Amino acid sequence: MLKTLGAQIKEFKADSIRTPLYMILEVLMETMIPLMMASIVDQGVEAGNMAHIYKMGILMVAAAAVGLFAGVMGGKYGARASAGFAKNLREAMYENIQTFSFSNIDKFSTAGLVTRMTTDVTNIQNAYQMILRMCMRAPASLICALAMAFWINAKVASIYLIAVIFLGCILMLIIRNAMKYFDQVFRKYDDLNASVQENVTGIRVVKAFVREDYEIGRFHKASGNLYQMFLKAESIVAWNAPVMQFTVYACILGISWLGAHMIVQGSLTTGELMSLLTYCMNILMSLMMLSMVFVMITLSMASAERIAEVLDEKADLVNPKDADFTVPDGSIAFENVSFGYQKNHERPVLSGVNLKIRAGETIGIIGGTGSAKTSLVNLISRLYDVTEGSVKVGGKDVRTYDVETLRNEVSVVLQKNVLFSGTILENLRWGDKNASEEDCKRACELACADEFIQKMPDQYQTYIEQGGANVSGGQKQRLCIARALLKKPKILILDDSTSAVDTATDARIRQAFAQEIPNTTKLIIAQRISSIQSADRIIVMDNGCVHGFGTHQELMETDEIYRDVYESQMSGKGDFDENGGDL
Amino acid sequence: MPGPMHAKRLPPGGKNKIKNPGKLLKRLLAYVWKNYAVACVIVVVCIFISVLSNVQGTLFLKTLIDVYILPLIGSENPDFSGLLQAIVRVGSFYAVGVGSTFAYTKIMIYVTQGSLRRLRDDLFAHMEKLPIRYFDTTSHGNIMSVYTNDIDTLRQMVSQSIPQLLSSAITIISVLASMIRLNIPLTAVTLVMVALMLFVTKKIAGLSGSYFIDQQVNIGKVNGYIEEMMEGQKVVKVFCHEEESKEKFKELNEALFDSAYQANQFANILMPLNAQMGNISYVLCALVGGALALNNLTGLTVGGLASFLTFNKSFNMPINQVSQQLNSIVMAMAGAQRVFALLDETPETDEGYVTLVNAKEENGALTETTERTGIWAWKHFHKDSGTTDYVRQQGDLVLDGVDFGYTEEKTVLHDIKLYAKPGQKIAFVGSTGAGKTTITNLINRFYDISDGKIRYDGININKIKKDDLRHSLGMVLQDTHLFTNTVMENIRYGRLEATDEEVIAAAKLANADGFIRRLPQGYQTVLHGDGASLSQGQRQLLAIARAAVADPPALILDEATSSIDTRTERIVQDGMDKLMQGRTTFVIAHRLSTVKNSDCIVVLENGRVIEKGTHDELLEEKGKYYQLYTGNSIA
Q: What single string gives the DSSP state of each residue in A418-435?
C-alpha cells in the first residue's frame, strides 16, 4: 500500500528529500544556539568580557540566520512536496478511474470515489507534510539535544535518559488507550452527522408527521452517547499535559540539585547549567512532537488504504491486441449468452440468451423490473463482458473490436443519464467533437429537442447547470438522445430514455427515427407498451431469459406476459404522466 | 487530537468575512459560561496557579545561582541543606502546579464537550423547528458543514485556544512585571523586538491567509468537478470522453496545487521566523545589557543580566504560542458566526389554538375523551364568549380565493377556489411548475398563503395548531424518505404508539407485507442510506404503509413519476386505492386510472385553475384535459 502511494511522489522526490535535510540543519542550529547562549553568560557577562559577547553575539546571529534559512526552505519544500504529492495522487486516481469499466465503477460507488479523491487526499497531504517536516526533525532534535547534554556533562545528562524513557512509555500508553476510544468516537460522530443529514433531506416527512420532538429526543440521546465517548477518550489524553509538566519539573529540580553540587566542586559552570536546562525542554518537546506525528500517521492510515484501493484497481475490460477498427454493419447476435455482475455468482443475471437482429431493424424490449433488460443491451457496446457465450456486432465478437470504435458505432442512451455543466452545444458535441451547429440542430430536431431549445433565451448557447438542473426531466432525456444521435451510430440503444417525455412527443421521436435513420439498428427499452408496439419485433424479457421474441401480433397470440401487460395498460391503468411534456 | 476528518468546505459565499468578532466571542463565552460558571472559575484559578508555579520556577533559577551556588564556591565544606530546603519548597510549588494543570485539563474536557453537546442539541432542536422555506433556500451542504466543520473548529477553540491564550497572557504579564523590575531599558529592547515579531507575523499571516482563500476556492472547484464527473463517469465511458475529461481535471488540479503550495509555504515559515527573531532578541539584550553592566549604567548587575536573559526567553515563548493560535481563532470565529446564524433563524411560528382531540358522542353531542375512539373533534375555544365547542373532524376542505408566492415579488398561485366534501377524491393535473405540489403544501401549512382562506371543517386553518393540523392530514410524498432504522420503525413513523400488529396490518393494507417478509430479516431489516437497497416501487409501498398506520381522515398524495414496471405499479396502485377509501384525498396524479376515478379533476396551468370537473365533463369540454387525455391515446 505504501509502495503504491509512494510511487506517486514522482517529480517531488527531490523536495521530499530536501525537506528533512533542511529540517535537520535547523535542528543543528537550534542545538548550537543554547551553547552560544551559555558562552555569552559564562565567558561574556560573568567575566565582563564585552568582546566575547560581541563575538558570540555575531556567531549566534549567524546561526539564527542559518536556522531561519533552513526553516524557511524546509517550510517551502515541505509545502511543495506535500501539495505536489496530493496533486499527483488526485491525478493518478483520476486517470485510473478513466480506465475503469462499468463493473469497476459499480464496485466503488460515486460517493466513494469522490470522498477518496477529496477528503482522503487532504488527509494524506497533511500527514505527508507532517512526516516530512517532523519525522526527521523530532528524533534529530531529540538526539542532538541529548548528545549535547551528554557532551556537557554525562552524569547530569543521564537524568534525561531516564526522563525520556519514562515519558516515552507513558505517551505510548496514553496513545494506545486513547486510539481505541477515538476510533469509536469518530464512528459515532459520523453516525450522528449522518442522522442530521437524514433530517435535513427528509424534513418534509418529519414535519408532515409532526415528528420534530421525536427526532429531537432521538438526537439528544445520540449526542449524549457521543458526549460520553468523547469524555472517555479525552480523559485519557488529559494526562498528557500534567505528565509532561511533571517530567520537566522533575528534571529541573534534579539538575538543579546535581548541578549545584558540581558547580561548587568546579566540574560544571553556571552557563552550562543554564544550557542543560534549555536542552531539557528541547528533548521532551521533541518527544511530544514525535507522539503527535505517530497519532497523525495512524489516523491517516485508513485514508491511505482507501486511496491505494483505487490506485491498485485494474480495469477488468481491456482493449484487444490487433483490434478491429471497422464495424461492417449494425446486425447483432447473441449466442448462448450468460452474464453475471459477480464472476462467481450462483444465479447469473442473464442466461442462455440467443437472438439474431438484422441491421436496420427496430427492436422493442419490455419486461418487469429486474428482468435484465438493461443488462442485455449493456453487453452490446461492451460496457460489461459476457460470462459465457458471445455477443456479435456486424458478425464479429464485440471483444475483437477496438473499444472506442465499437462504442462510437453502438450509441447508448443510458437510463440514468447525465448532462454536464456547459452550454447545450458543448453537451451535444460530446457525441461528435467536430459537429457543426447545423449537425447539432438536425440531431435535436430528430430527438424533438430543437422545439424547446428554440424557446430558451440563449438557444443552443443556453448554459446547462451541473447535472442538468435547469431543464426538466423530459427535456434532459431528449437532449441525451440528440447527443447520442450525433455519433451517427450503426446501432442506437434507448434504455428507457423517453419515460419522462409525453406520449405524443415520444411517438414523434419514433416516427422521425423510422423516416430519417432507417438504416440504423434501433433497440428501445420501455415500460409503456405504446412506445414499442410499432417496432419491427419485440423482445419480452423475464427473469434473465428471453420469454418471447416477435411482432406485436405474434406476441399477442403467443406470449401471455406480453398480452397481460398490454391489456393492463390499455384498459385504463395507463400513464397520465406528462411531466416532461410541454404541451 | 485532531477531530474527525472532513474536508473543509468552502464557507458559504459572501459570509466568510467576520462581522464583529468581539461580539461573537462574547456570545460564545457566554454560552459556555451559562452552564459551567463554577467550572470556568475553577479552570481560571487552576490556570493561574499552574502558570505562577511555572514562573516561580524560572525565578528560582536566579536564586539558585545567586544564593545557593555562588556563595558556596570555594568553601571547604559546603552546606547544601539550604538548597535542599529550597528545592523541596520549589518542588512542592511545582507539585501544586502539576496538580492544577491536571485539574483544569480534566475540567476543561467536561466544559468543552458538555458545551458542544448542548450546542449540537440546541442547533438540532432549533433546526427542526425552522420553516420548510429555510430548507428550500439554504443548501444542505451548508447546513451540514455547520455540524461537521464549524462545531469542530469551536471545539479546538474552547478546549485549546482559550486556555492557551489565558496561560500565555498570565505568563506574559508576570514575566513582563519581573523584567520591568530588573531593568527598564532592556525591557524596552525586548518589547521592540516583540513588536517587530508581531508585525512580521501579521504580514505573513495576511499573505498566507489570502492564499488560503485561493486554496479554498480551488478546492471547491476541484471537488465540484470531481463530483460532477464521477456522477457522469458512465456517460464519459459511453462517449469515450476520457481524454477531454482528464485534460480539464489536470488544469484545475494544477491551480489547486499552486495555491495549496503557496498557502502552506507561508504558514510553515511563520514558526521558524518567530523562533529566530526570538534568538536575535536574546543577542540584542545580551549586547545592550553587557554594555550597560560593564559601564555600570542603570544599576544592572551581572547576575541580573543573566536572569534577564532567561526572562527574555520565557517572554518570547508565549508570544510565539499566541501567534500560532491566531489562525485557529480566526477560523473558529468564522465557524461561530455560522453556528449562531443558524441559531438566530426565525423558527416556524404557530398562533393556532384549535386542537384535535379524541371525542365520543353522547346524546347527540360530542364530548372530549382520553381514549382513542376513532372519532376526532376540533376543540375550538371562543375567546369573546368564553365557550368551547367541539366540531367533528370530517375532512371538509375549502380553498377560497387563495393567492400564494414563494417570494413577495412573484405570485405562483392565483385565486384558487376549490372544495372537497368529506370522503371525496380531488385530482390535480397539469404540467411541471403548474402549481400542483404548491397547493398541497399550503393545506398542511408548510407555507402560509398570501391572500384568501383555507377552511378545514369550517375552521380557518390559521386558527388550528400546526401540529394538530398536520396530524389530521396524511402525506405520501413523491420522493419517499426512509430513515436509517428497521422497516418496522420506518412504518411506525406514521404513529409512534402503533403496536407491531397495527404496523403489520398497515403494511398489509398497503400491499407491502409481501415484499417485507421476503427481506432478510423481515420487518426487522435495517434500512441504510435512505433505503438504498429497495426499489422505487417498494419505497412507495412503505410510504403508503406509513400513511396507513397514521390513519388520518384526510390524505395528500403525490404520485411518483419515476417509471416502475407494470406489475409493481398495479400493486402500488391497489395499495393507494385501499388507502384512499373513505378519506378526503388530494392527489397529484400522473396515472390515468387515478385521474379517472376522481370525484373532481382540477387542471392547473401557470398557477391558475383552468378546468374543473369529472372525467366525462372535462372530456366534453374539449379543453386542455381533452388534449392531455387524447395525447395519451396516440399509440
A: ---SEEHHHHHTTT-TT-
Instruction: Provide mean pLDDT across the span B443-451.
Output: 85
Average pLDDT over residues B306-322: 81
Q: Decide if A372 contacts A338 (C-beta within 8 A).
A: no
User: Does the beta-carbon distance from B238 to A381 stay under 8 Å?
Assistant: yes
Q: Give the span between the Cα atoms of A57 and A67, in whole angstroms.
A: 15
Distance CA B496, CA A167 (A): 55
B483 touches A at CB < 8 Å:
yes
Q: How many residues does chain B have?
A: 635
Q: pLDDT at residue B447 above 90?
A: no
At A410, give phi and psi (nearest 5°). -110, 100
Look at residue B564 in the predicted model and tell me its pLDDT: 60
User: Which chain A residue shows the shortest CA-CA distance from B475?
Assistant: A208
ipTM of this predicted structure: 0.80
Share of chain B above pLDDT 90, in %: 6
Note whether A283 and A164 are within 8 A (CB).
yes
Please tell me the predicted confidence (pLDDT) of residue B566. 65
Q: Are strands A350-357 and A332-339 parallel, antiparallel or unpaired?
A: antiparallel
| CA A525/CA A546 separation, integer angstroms | 14
Q: What is the pLDDT of residues A188-208, one digit of tens each?
A: 887 887 788 788 877 888 888
Report H helices in A363-501.
373-378, 403-409, 424-428, 437-446, 450-453, 473-485
> A218, A195 in Cβ contact below 8 A?
yes
pLDDT of res. A573: 42
Q: What is the nearest CA distance from A6 to chain B, expressed in angstroms? A: 18
Q: Answer yes or no: do B563 and A189 touch at CB < 8 A.
A: no
Residue with cell 464512528: A187
Whether chain B has a CB inside 8 Å of the CB on A71: the answer is: yes
- The answer on pLDDT for B622 being more than 80 is no
Q: Which residue has the cell 459570509?
A: B15
Contact A299 B2 (CB under 8 A): yes
Say if residues A568 and B570 touch (Cβ distance below 8 Å). Answer: yes
In the 8-state DSSP scheme, what is residue B147? I
What is the C-alpha separation between A201 and B551, in angstroms, rounded? 24
Q: What is the pLDDT of chain A when averaged over all its residues?
A: 81
For residue A412, count CB atoms less than 10 angstroms from its CB and return exposed for 0-12, middle for 13-18, buried for 19 or more.
Answer: buried
Q: What is the pTM of this model?
A: 0.76
Is A420 within 8 Å of B120 when comparing Cβ atoms?
no
pLDDT at B565: 65
Candidate from A83, A264, A572 with C-beta closest to B260 = A83
Which of A101, A208, A583 is nearest residue B444 as measured by Cβ atoms? A208
Pair A533, A503: CB distance under 8 Å: no
Average of per-residue pLDDT across A140-163: 87
Buried b (16+ CB within 10 A) or exposed e, B237-246: bbbbbbeebb
CA distance A348 to chain B (A): 19
Return the DSSP state at B512.
-
CA nearest to B148 within chain A: A193
Distance between CA atoms of residues B400 and B541, nearest Å: 33
pLDDT at B609 exceeding the cut of 90: no
- Domains annotated for chain A, with CATH where assigned, are 2-312 (1.20.1560.10), 332-570 (3.40.50.300)
Cell of A437: 451547429
Residues of B in contact with A198 (CB under 8 A): 481, 483-484, 530
Interface with A, mutate which of B345, B431, B566, B619 (most A CBs under 10 A): B566
What b/e string do you get for A142-171 counting C-beta neighbours within 10 Å, with b at 16 or more?
bebbbebbbebbeebbebbeebbeebeebb
A569 contacts on B by Cβ (under 8 Å): 566
CB of B309 closer than 8 Å to CB of A61: no
